[in-house]
Amino acid sequence: MASTLITTNELTGVRVLGGKNGQKRIGKVRRFVFHPKEKRCIGFIVKRPDLLWMFRRKDKFVSIEGYDLVDGRIVIRDVPEATDRAACKALGVDWDSCVLWLGLPVMTEDGQAYGQVGNVTFNRLTGAVDSFDTDAGATANVLLGTRTVPADLIRGFRRGMGAALARTGEEAQQNDDVVLGAIMVSDEVRGLASEGGVAEKAGQATAVAADKVQTAVDKVKPVASEAARKTGEAVNKGAYATGRQIARSKTMFSDFKEEYDKARGSKSSSKPSSKSGGTTLSKASSGAAKQPAKAQAKKRPAPKKNMFAAFKEEYDKARHED
Description:
Elements: E1 5-7, H1 8-11, E2 15-18, E3 24-34, E4 41-47, E5 60-63, E6 67-70, E7 73-76, H2 84-91, E8 105-107, E9 113-123, E10 129-135, H3 138-144, E11 148-150, E12 154-164, E13 180-185, H4 198-269, H5 277-290, H6 293-298, H7 306-321
Parallel strand pairs: 2-7, 8-13
Antiparallel strand pairs: 1-9, 2-3, 3-4, 4-5, 6-7, 8-9, 9-10, 10-11, 12-13
Helix pairs in contact: 4-7
């Protein structure tokens, strides 16, 4: 079974039809009228279009018991007690005593204000109020959110405090006395939590962000530990390989030095033959004395190649082993 609850926001601006066949355009829902003593919506005011866009037409009151919802539109029943004064008489209310709740201050007995009456939820068949949302203005609603006041915390309408009342009857004259009114609520409204505000969402977002950060940290910990372990292993392997290479380099250069020393020793230990050695030395000495230093340097014998061959051999071995 479909819910019979509806809100003032849902009905505001809805097109209203009427006439004998229910096809005549009457206007659109503009305001909602409430009982002066009971927590009950008794109907709504329909704003009629101006005649020829020049002459203003009088608004029409439609009783809570005088309409039907058809395809998302309001269709006024074709009976006298569905609208205006006849409807008020059928409902047993004084039109001039009825109240427009929306926009009235929401107050407790000690005068504490909690914004104004905003969106009202009521039974579309009986008009009984189910709840209403407080409205503190667009900016405050965005920042602080709104409270939803249930029917059991609503005391009803009270005159003499609050804000000036809007007239439901004829337009007020300048010499009319200002009448104050407010919707009284229980002190328990103080304990109602605000919903939908930026502050609440920010708190929720902060909590969610903290949970996500903690989850990310928990996921990263094992990965970081594994990465650290692998990095340590890589460092150890690198150090070991470097040590091997250094050890090989020490052998390589020691072998190089050994070969170099051998080459120098073989050169210094060579002696001339007994037959021609003296003549050769004397001739070389005399020739060297006569020739310039550059010429002597050019005639010096080149070092033997076995020293560099040993170095290259050790170097190639080290490369192939790696």
